[in-house]
Amino acid sequence: MIPNAPALPEQIGRYRVERLVGRGAMGVIYRAHDPVIDRPVAIKLVRTDLLEGMDRADILARFQREAQAAGRCVHPNIVAVHDFATHEGNPFFVMEFVEGVSLDRVIADGPSFSPSAAVDVLLQVFAALGCAHGLGIVHRDIKPANVLLLPDGRVKVADFGISRLSGSELTQSGAMVGTPSYMSPEQCRGDTIDLRSDLFSAGVVLYELLAGERPFPGRNFAEITYRLLNQVPADLTVRRPDAPPGLSSVLQRALAKDPRERFASAAEMAETLRAALRWPAASPADSDRTELLRPRPPAATGRATTTGFGESALSDIERKLARHVGPIAHYLVQSALRRAGSIEDLCGSLVQSIEPADARAQFMREVLGGATMEGGRTQVDRTASPEPARTQIPAEEIERAERALRHFVGPMARILVRRAAEKSGSAAELWRQLATHIDSAADRDVFLRSDPDRPK
Known about the structure:
Elements (H helix, E strand, L loop, with lengths): L10 E2 L2 E9 L3 E8 L4 E8 L9 H16 L9 E7 L2 E7 L4 E2 H7 L5 H20 L12 E3 L5 E3 L13 E2 L2 E2 L8 H5 L5 H17 L9 H10 L5 H4 L5 H10 L11 H11 L34 H15 L3 H9 L5 H8 L6 H11 L27 H15 L3 H11 L3 H9 L5 H9 L7
Antiparallel strand pairs: 1-2, 2-3, 3-4, 4-6, 5-6, 7-8, 8-9, 10-11
EC number: 2.7.11.1
InterPro entries: DUF8082, Kinase-like_dom_sf, Prot_kinase_dom, Protein_kinase_ATP_BS, Ser/Thr_kinase_AS
GO molecular function, one term: ATP binding
């Protein structure tokens, strides 16, 4: 039960209220039903006391303008704003209802994130910011509570267009609503802000995910504000020695006090993060494209998910991954599923979320022994139709491939090579399969050049 919750209204506008979802500094949020469109929606009803002493007509007009601007932000990583109206004289926003969990709850439930898990979340946040900034909209309140993790692994950012009036413009007894923990210095001072303020806030979130604490901690408002305005946070390498060195420089630039020293755009910060983890650059269309997924044919036997992977196998992988990364495991699995073509691909992607190297090797040993795919791809039970005999690959060729692969993926190379050798019909096929476990195209090319039989 949510403490001090107001009585549940039966209806707000045309929307039938179903339950209270939460409360925030700005007001209360309900799950409701839209009878016209026949869909669930989220309604944010603004607190009455926030409007006291203000020109109501003026503030309602500004709310409406912000809602109209936010309504133009149509993006897979943004919680859509559907409508704006008033209820008994108080403004409310109607938004897409998202079945997910906020990032702040995941942070509270588990350990710090692995570098790749944290970057995966932030890249989706930057995709949302890039869309909004392109429309001239600054979020102003990027924080874990406004970042939602969906069951399918996607991330959605909430409160675009709404948070503009939930910060310094709406006051209670002359004080800002909320906390400065994720504010930029210029926002905390009440100065004019631009998109670089959002990038600072995103940097704070990234630092917290990686370090397990906020960069500007404090026991109260005044202490947090003082550190935000006057102190430099501890270097990430102090809090997280295992993090790639490039992440520290990204955070130093993102958290610069002077906006001119920060990244110029969400896209620039995203690409710098990718480079820090040696991930391939994003396609120009990746941030805003819509994908139409054709359904796969149903599995002949056994229970398979819509992705074609066995449900029991996925549950087993998720459970074993959670031992290393905590409750974020479910979202990492669902996100990796969208890119994986095999169990080996899936595990190769997930293992990058695990630190240190010996833990990665342990995870690969645990999962590659039994997890397979269903639904027309690799089958769990192969006894019904045995595979044709494979050409025997010389042991020295396997050892050479393992030594070359270990340089890029570490100690799990032995497991990956063993699995690939069982399925490969030739040494050339073995090298090609192993190359798929290397993210960087340049590194894949270096690896393949290690094959002495590769055509020159």
